[in-house]
Write a structure and sequence with these properties.
This protein is mainly alpha-helical. The chain has a domain at 25-40 and 290-375. It has 13 helices and 2 strands. A two-stranded antiparallel ribbon has the order 1-2. A hairpin with a 2-residue loop joins β1 (104-107) and β2.
Length: 375
């Protein structure tokens, strides 16, 4: 216990907080018709700044595991399994309930219950749960080197599965091998339909490579703790990030970088950028000691899953609340406050920034009160 405090790097908390702030920013524009292109997902192949947010969060989950898994070393195998399964199930159920929330919807002017038959099963929190659970078991049983090998097998194996079982262009929506699998296991009614057809960007098959974002985040955390605050550690972290980005761009020529089917090249690309960003944060915070600005992000990093969950709940309540004009509260806030104040595009952005600031205040208050909700 006495070595935990010096090992805890503030920059890792900042990285996690920055990621949560980014998730709130990109998920809550005032209007989806007015969004600056860097705050939108790539239509299919490619990667925008927004496409970095979710894999960064998984990478941050792995970072946190590099600390928490040490505590499991003193536990028996059965206790470790129980802890991993309990946390995985809890996060998955919370995600499922968030998808279902607020459990009612408007129909012909009346509030009616939202049936389970149309509930989306997967999503952001369920994917976090599955990636955490599988990565935790891999790390527990195979240890660090074995986890690295397992990640390589998952990335190459996923590529093989897409080629072997895909149809036509295996990297297209129509030819993607994970689509029929999701339809078979989940059913079309329980899938995301944001593409205009049943297709889940957090589907079953694409969860396999996403597990690697957690594993690599864990390995990066272990490396940082083992090496300590040295320039050698920092330089090796940056070099590794550059190598991964270069490898991903080369792989992109035959296996396109794509978030929606979470390609293996996308994993290497996002992990590489995460390492570079983390290196910069560590240099500024740990080496130069410039920490005053970190308060902008650490409140998010202290309660990441809770704040993300709370943001989802608040937005869903906005959409449920109906005003006399017939608008929901979400639309009313944009059209009556932010759009008149700053125009279409900037008003939409200002709406998102306002909510980042609001949830920052929530996180700041919780931190001041020493309220930390662990899942």
């Amino acid at each position: 216990m006495k070595t935990e405090t010096p090992q805890r790097f503030l920059s890792l908390d900042v990285f996690r907080g920055l990621t949560v702030a980014g998730m709130i920013l990109v998920n809550n524009p005032g209007s989806w018709s007015y969004v600056y292109s860097p705050l939108e997902h790539a239509p299919w192949h490619g990667c925008t700044p927004t496409d970095l947010v979710f894999p960064f969060f998984l990478f941050a989950v792995g970072n946190a595991m590099s600390f928490s898994m040490k505590k499991y070393e003193v536990l028996g195998n059965g206790a470790v399994i129980q802890k991993i399964l309990k946390r995985t199930l809890l996060i998955f159920v919370i995600g499922l309930l968030l998808n279902w929330f607020p459990f009612v919807k408007w129909s012909d002017g009346l509030l009616v219950g939202k049936p389970f038959s149309g509930l989306r099963i997967l999503g952001v929190l369920p994917r976090i749960a599955l990636c955490y659970g599988v990565a935790a078991f891999i790390i527990h049983y195979l240890k660090d080197k074995g986890a690295f090998v397992a990640a390589g097998i998952l990335l190459l194996g996923y590529w093989f599965l897409l080629i072997a079982f895909g149809t036509g262009d295996p990297y297209s929506l129509e030819g993607y091998a994970g689509l029929p699998l999701d339809k078979l296991i989940l059913g079309e009614n329980h899938m995301y339909k944001g593409e205009g057809v049943p297709f889940d960007p957090e589907g079953i098959l694409s969860t396999l490579p996403a597990i690697c974002n957690v594993i690599f985040g864990y390995l990066a955390g272990v490396f940082i703790q083992q090496q300590g605050k040295t320039y050698e550690m920092l330089s090796r972290l940056m070099i590794t990030g550059c190598i991964l980005i270069f490898t991903a761009l080369c792989w992109d020529l035959v296996f396109p970088i794509n978030k929606k089917i979470w390609t293996s090249s996308y994993v290497l690309y996002t992990v590489g950028i995460a390492l570079l960003l983390l290196s910069v944060l560590m240099y500024v915070v740990e080496f130069k000691g410039r920490t005053a600005w970190t308060v902008l992000f650490t409140p998010f990093g202290k309660n990441p899953l809770f704040i993300y969950f709370l943001a989802g709940v608040v937005v869903k309540l906005y959409l449920l609340a109906r005003l006399p004009e017939g608008q929901n509260l979400y639309s009313w806030l944009y059209t009556h406050i932010f759009q008149p104040l700053a125009g279409n595009m900037n008003g939409s952005l200002l709406f998102a920034i306002f909510h980042v600031a609001f949830f920052w205040l929530v996180g700041w208050w919780m931190d001041k009160k020493k309220i930390y909700i662990r899942v």
